[in-house]
Structures are given as structure tokens and as C-alpha cells.
């Protein structure tokens, strides 16, 4: 099929070029009928070929169906890519005139740019003007008493903490601080316009904006002016078609393969499908799809039946990770004791994890495992998906309020059912185990892609966002790295290679990241902010070296007075002796 497709592509290109020359106004528009028309065309052609072949075939019906679906989706994907390559897609984004009014600003609603007042006004009256200082606001930094600063105004959001759709942890981690950029980059215009004013209690008297922060905000305003926050769904048509092709092809090889290598190859492809599908879950979990939170959440929750992971768990974990990126006490993505420690700060002294609600410390077992973590890193990544299963189920079965709990539980059960069915269809128990291992090992690429973006970068104790040296943009850039990849490999990395831009603007669609790097890097160079950008090999190398360095610290840790092992680093920091 691949060989025939390669020979067919020049013909497709010639046909599309002649079509473009004859009908220059005919372009593929961003609407559902265009997409369905392409799918119907490719499906019909594939069906005709399959009917001609199946007359002399003795294969089971489900195998013939999977082959037809694979050919149809593969043909549709090739056609969509050819249309994109030939420039036959209609323009999508609408640009706005430059905003010269300092009292107005661009924000997005469902991805579409809107020009709205910078400071939202209540429906009745004016905002309170009670003066407060940063020192006074900083005292309100708990779950029960949470104040935040947004664009120079002070808001008491204490009564909203438990209602926050993103969970209470992000608000509490930003409480008592200026969260202007975190708020603006995470919320649509309607939240600012309609919900925020009722929580206002006064105005900050010592509010300032650092020059580099102003320039980063100007970049976001320019992206909004260009309309880049609106999602071109033709991108997700391609991704969706690709995912369907991978899924049915993996099933075809696994269920219709005539020998063990072919069926195990199906398991490998299934792992790639899970890795790619996680990109959809990530995008829609951030409301990068339709930009309607509940719609995107529902789509992600539906995906649990195909990838076996809970969006509810992921959003709670990931929102906290974004706000507290690489904080020892608060970021769950670097809290993996007793298995892993990404920095000696993890075990320098026992600490309370605000996410897992438990004490984290170095005991004898952790000391042993961490001491050799760099040697077993990749084997652990091959099995890391099983850890995500148990985290997902723990979240779904918890008493914490979450969206779509029943939907995701049903989806997870469906996932367990069909994966078990495929695995047990193998010719022997050993082959079933092999299929499960290979599929989960190839899906482990996702875990490697995620951790190399952060584990070798700066870590810190406590909360960031204390002054201009660790505000939103600087903190995200210092704790994150980008992975240099050629453009034709962007689909492999599912947007995770541009973690810096993603962390700066989480609602920006991933297909824009490559261009945005050209706007972010000059600001970092101008203000001497370290912008780390290396290839995938170097990112892995730096991660392994960071793990090795931490492992060496663990080997030399000693038992402290409280019975747990401590790093000598702590003694040095405290000038012990």
C-alpha cells in the first residue's frame, strides 16, 4: 500500500494542480461538509477496491472491514495533506486593526478575538477603589482566604475557590500574588467581563509592570490581533484522520496478522496511536479545540474509552503543574519519590506535598531506587502508562467534585474491555503479554517527551511570582525547554516540543507554536532570560545527566536525626557545623 501510494502521489498532485489552475476560487474551506465530502470520496473508492478483492477472499468480515477502513482513512489523510501542500486551503484567520486605546485590550472568546475594556466594569456602579499594597495582599494566601491581583486591581476570590473548574489548587498557589498573566492566558473574555468584577475589593497602590513583561504581553496582543487563537479545524481533521488510520491499522495487524511479528507490529502501532491521541487529550484539556471548556472537556473525556486515561485526573494534575512548574513542594510532575528524584532538593529535607497531601522524604528504599534512577529511566518510561491508569482510577473514585465522572468511568471500562479482548486474541499467553508490553512501551515515547521538557531545568522551593525576577513569563521559561525538530516531524511530538510557548500561552493552538518562537526568543535575548532550545537527543542527554547527578547525591545521603536520609546539600545550605 505504501509503495502504491508513493507512486500515486505525483498523479494526485498533478490532478490537484490542474484543478487549482482551472478553478482558482475553489478552495478547501474550514467547514464540516468539506471534510465529510473528502471522507466519503475516499471511503467510496476504498470500498470499491475492497468489494473487488473480497469476492475471492476467505478472511473474516471484521478483518476485511478493518482493511477497508485503513485504506479509506489512509487515502483521505494523503488527500488532505496533498491539498494542504498544494496551497488549496482557503484563508482562515481574520486580522484586526491595531488597538491604540490603552483602556481597551484584545481577549479571546471561543478562540475568536474580541476588543474589550482592559479593566472590566460591574453592571451597576464602579469598582471599589480601596487602596492596598502588595504586602497587605500577600497575607491572604490560603484556601479559606485567597486574594489575587489582576491588572492592578485586588480581588477576593475566597468564595470561588471550591467552585473553580480548574480545581482549587491553582488559585491557592497564586493566592496573595499578582496573577495577571496566569489569569489572562488561562481564561476566555467572558470570565473577565462577567465574573471578575463582583469579586473586586480594591486597587493596588504599588502595582508596576516590568519592561520584559510588557513586551511579552504585547506579543500576546499581536497574536490576538492576528486571530491566531482561533483554531483552524482543518488541522484536527488531519489529526483525527491520522488517528483513525493508526487505530484501525493497529487492529488490522493485531487481529488479522498471520504471524507473530505482524501481530506484535500491531501492538507497536497501537502504542503510537495512544501517544498521538494523548496530544488530542492535551489540546482539548487546555480548551485549544473549540475553546469552549465544557465541550472540549467532554471530547477529552470521550477519548478515555480509547486511551484509558482520565481527563479529570489530568486536568487537576496538569493545571497545578502549569501554575507551579518545577516547584519542589507544589508541582506533582516532579514528585515521584520513592522511585525518582529530579533534583537533590527533593530529599534535602522532608516536605509536605500540597498536591498529594502527604509528607515526602528519603527513606532506605527511596535511597536505593533513586541511586540508580538514571540506569533504569527508559525501562521505567516503557511501563509508566500503568502508573497513569492507577492515578486516573484514584481520581475518578475519589470524593472530590469533578466533571463527567460517570462518562469517564464508563469510558475506562470500555477501554479495559477492548484492550483485553485484543490482547487475549493472540495465539498464546506469552504473545498476549508481549503485545501488551510492546504497545505500552511504544506509548512510553509520550512520557519521555513530557519529562525532557522540565526535568533538567531549574527547580525551586515554595511559590514563584514574588517579584519581577520570577513572574509568570520568567518562571515558565526558566523551568522549561524546547526541543528542536524539523517541521515535518512536528506531528510526532504533538506540540510538546514547544513547551515554552505552550506554558506561556496554554490556550494557543499548537500549530502556531513554531511561528511564535520567533517572537518570544528575541525578548529573551534582549532581557537575558535563558531560553533553552536543543534537539531531542541533547534533551534526553541532559535529562539523564540531571538524574545521574541527583542519584550521586542520593548515594551520599546520610540518616538524619528524624530517621530519614538527608542530602549533605541541606547541611551546607544551613551551615551545619
Protein model, in words:
The protein is an alpha/beta fold and 577 residues long. Helix content is 54%, strand content 8%. The chain is built from 24 helices and 13 strands. The chain has helices at residues 2-22, 32-54, 61-85, 134-138, 168-174, 180-186, 189-195, 211-226, 233-256, 260-285, 293-302, 304-307, 311-323, 364-370, 377-396, 405-424, 429-443, 445-451, 472-478, 490-493, 499-504, 513-526, 536-555, 568-573; strands spanning 104-109, 112-117, 131-132, 147-150, 153-156, 177-178, 200-204, 351-353, 358-360, 481-484, 532-535, 558-559, 565-566. The strands form five sheets. Strands 3-7-5-4-6 form a five-stranded mixed sheet. Strands 1-2 form a two-stranded antiparallel ribbon. A hairpin with a 2-residue loop joins strand 1 (104-109) and strand 2. Residues 1-9 have low confidence and may be disordered.
Brief description of this entry?
The protein is of the alpha/beta class and about 575 residues long. About 55% of the residues lie in helices and about 10% in strands. A 5-stranded mixed β-sheet has the order 3-7-5-4-6. Strands 1-2 form a two-stranded antiparallel ribbon. It has a two-stranded antiparallel sheet with strand order 8-9.
List keywords for this structure.
globular; single chain; alpha/beta; 577 residues; 54% helix; 24 helices; five-stranded mixed beta sheet
